Amino acid sequence: MAMSTALWSFALVVGLLTLTPGLDTAVILRTAALGRRTRAWGVVLGVQTGTLVWGALTSLGVTALLTASQLAYEILRWAGAAYLLWMAVRMVRDTFRGRGEAPEEAAGGGEADTFSGGWRQGTLTNLLNPKVGVFYVAVLPQFIPAEARHFTTGLLLTGVHIVLGTIWSTVLIASATALGTWLRRPRSRRILDRVTGTVIGAFAVRLAVSD
């Protein structure tokens, strides 16, 4: 397989994956919709940081441990499920606590609009999802030409995924910002957080019960 063919083929696969609604999409949309643009961009960078880590570890062969060791996968799976469930419960719980608060404090207003806070959230959300690691183990090596350097080419392909993910995240943030005035009303914010919290909780349950 030629390098150009590998790049375009991998771009098509991860492009379709990026467009598929998932956990990262839900977190980015919710954060941007609540007017926390700085935090939203932090989430985006955190998600892409996680993607880079997964790509680098896969290129080094480290993530093969996830498929070779049931214990390693189970530890990461339960840690990820616990983190997502905690995030979901806190999100929904805060919508009830915020009924009597000022609009800017209601519906999860406890989250500061900081880049570092968003980066931590995005990074943890991505790294604690073992299915991202398994995806890279299963897919990335197939697009590395036999004559190419494994680590360098793996990072190059991962970079393609990061670029596409960042472009799509930009579209998500712009779309959410356009509806920001309506979504930042107290009632709308409570509905948004309850829906997003439910979606994240469903991801947590799915991760916990999946093999």
Automatic annotation (TrEMBL):
<feature type="transmembrane region" description="Helical">
    <location>
        <begin position="41"/>
        <end position="65"/>
    </location>
</feature>
<keyword id="KW-1133">Transmembrane helix</keyword>
<feature type="transmembrane region" description="Helical">
    <location>
        <begin position="127"/>
        <end position="144"/>
    </location>
</feature>
<keyword id="KW-0812">Transmembrane</keyword>
<dbReference type="Pfam" id="PF01810">
    <property type="entry name" value="LysE"/>
</dbReference>
<dbReference type="GO" id="GO:0005886">
    <property type="term" value="C:plasma membrane"/>
</dbReference>
<keyword id="KW-1003">Cell membrane</keyword>
<feature type="transmembrane region" description="Helical">
    <location>
        <begin position="6"/>
        <end position="29"/>
    </location>
</feature>
<feature type="transmembrane region" description="Helical">
    <location>
        <begin position="156"/>
        <end position="179"/>
    </location>
</feature>
<dbReference type="GO" id="GO:0015171">
    <property type="term" value="F:amino acid transmembrane transporter activity"/>
</dbReference>
<protein>
    <submittedName>
        <fullName>Lysine transporter LysE</fullName>
    </submittedName>
</protein>
<dbReference type="InterPro" id="IPR001123">
    <property type="entry name" value="LeuE-type"/>
</dbReference>
<keyword id="KW-0472">Membrane</keyword>
